[in-house]
Amino acid sequence: MNYTxxxxxxxxxxxxxxxxxxxxxxxxxxxxxxxxxxxxxxxFPDWLVPExxxxxxxxx
Length: 60
Fold this sequence. Notes:
This protein is elongated. The N and C termini lie far apart (47 Å). 60% of the residues lie in helices and 0% in strands. By secondary structure, it is mostly helical. It has a domain at 1-40. The longest helix is centred in the middle third of the chain and has 24 residues, at 19-42. Keywords: Membrane, Transmembrane, Transmembrane helix.
């Protein structure tokens, strides 16, 4: 383990995050998992896939 990570863990153990912060992080993780699950279930929409242009130039 890196010394920096050890110091960060010590600081976190002495000063843990608030309950609201933990709930916020869990909510963000749950939203990300829900989006991933919907994408796995229904697939990625075709209208979000960029089309290639001739000549290999940038997308317009």
